[in-house]
Each structure stands twice: as C-alpha cells, then as structure tokens.
Amino acid sequence: MTLERERARTLIQQFGQRRILVVGDVMLDRYIYGVVRRISPEAPVPVLNVTHEKAVPGGASNVAWNIQTLGGASHVAGVIGPDQEGAILTEHLRQAQVDVGAIYQAPSARTTVKTRIIAERQQVVRVDWEAKLAWKGEEQQAFIALLEQALAHVDGVIIEDYGKGLISQAVVDVILARARESGIPVGYDPKDDHALDVRGITLATPNRKEAYAAVGKEEPLEDVPPLEDAQLNQVALQLADKWGVELLAITLGPQGMYLLGPDRSPLHVPTRAREVYDVSGAGDTVIAVGTLALAAGATHVEAAELANYAAGVVVAQLGTTPCSATELLDALP
Q: What mean pLDDT value characterizes the chain?
C-alpha cells in the first residue's frame, strides 16, 4: 500500500468536515432470513422457515448511508412513490441522519424494492418490485428545483445511476454546471446500458462489464493479470477520453481495481478482502469512500486505496452493510 496509516487517519478524520450529495435511484433493500430443512411437496424447491427480516437503504440511498456511517454528512436526492415502501425508506434514512430534503415523492412513481431470500448464509433468490421512472414534465422540474437547492451546500456530488430512470442528461447537466462553479469533485457510478455525456467528472467507478459495455465491447471471459491485459488497457483509455474523467477506477472483483489517472498510466490495486460473503453494496462503498476522500483532500491514488480497503470490509459481511470510519482504519495494515 502506498498510503501510510497516519496519512489515512488524517484523511478519515477530515471526512467529518465534508458534505456529500448523492443523486440517483434510491431503493429499499429487504432481507428475509431463515433455514431450509425440506423440499416442498408442491414443486422441487426448498421451503424456507423464516427466522427474521430486515429492511435497509439500497441503491443511491445506500451510498448516502455509507457516507454518513464513515463520518461525513450526507444528503440524498432521489424519487420515491406515494407508497408504504417509500415512507419506510425515508424513515430509515432519517434515523441514519441522512438529509432527505431532496427526496421527491412523485405521484406517478413506484418505490423500487429488492427482496433477498437468504437460507443461512446463502442467497436463494432475489425478488424485485420496480417500474422505470416515467417523468411527467412538472415532476422532473420539481425534482430539479430540490436538486439545485441541495447542490448549493455540499463539498462533493455522486451520480449514482441504477438505470431506473432518474439520471437523465438534464439532471447530469445541472450537477456538472454547479460542480464547475464550486470546484467540487463529482463521482460517477454508471449503469452499463445508459449513455450520458458526463465529461467533467472527477471519479468514475464502473465494474469490468460496465467499462466494456460503455465503449461498445463485450467483456472477455478469460482472466488476465490486469497490467498485462492489453484489451482492458485499451478500454480504459477509450473510456477515460469518452467521459473526460480525472480518475477511472475499474473494479475487477477478486482482481481488485484498475486505475487510470490524469497521466493515463495504469495502476493495479489488488483486492483487500480477507473473505467474501456477499458483494451486495460493494460498488456503493467504493464510490462513497472515493468521492468522500477526494473531497477531504486525498490524491487520486489515496482515494482509490481507501475505497479498495472499504470494499474489502463490506464484502466480508452478509447483506447491504456500510463501512464505518473505525472499520476502515482497522482494515489498514
């Protein structure tokens, strides 16, 4: 690791002085836990005896939850429906002390819910309730008005695109214009099938599949050491130019992270996970820590190192779980 522990401690202490706005598709993550002891007589499927349930913020709201847990002050801008799930999500965020002033309840929307059924430590199935956001003109304008108010009071912004319809070019343009005026960093966590002009962003964190898809290529199946992977390097260069991004951090799962900074010299950061139980929310943690660290004064490589260690913390836990500042510091060598 190039980041010394005392430098990491200083940066993490600065997290508490930074306010980050997360803009994107908010959702509710539900978990149903139980044990399986028999197969159903009705069909060849396991019967889950439920032991307990929980609900936590997911999607863009999980990114905001991560920032708050890390010690930063987080705000979230998103859309919920006029339903019970939206009320539950908003209440969870309030309890986590996330500012929900820019969450807009659209009459035409439905709150996205992802329910994971887990037998002991094994996810059996996921059930999604969602409908892509179909904006009415006045609804989008009402949301953008809330967004502009929130942008006036933050030290960094994250665009969190889950492809549910909130992140449009109009929304991105408002964010980038404000960021240019204020000189604040903008993080971008993309969706692989959503084309946007995001030139001017500071940090982008696509996974390998999303990076290839963004330049119109299919992800290869073979695993090659990242710095020896000529195709990956070509994709990264194309993507960095397309997005005009200062730091491109392609997450590679067990292989860690591939970085391309302003000088366009590649760097490989190996994974820091000791054990991998559940990758849910790992990408959310990477963009949260990376953007928060940049807002706190970290260099590009320092921000990526901290994000990589934080991802190692969350994948060792079951379910969508944020990483705390203490856990992050404890994970460093």
A: 90
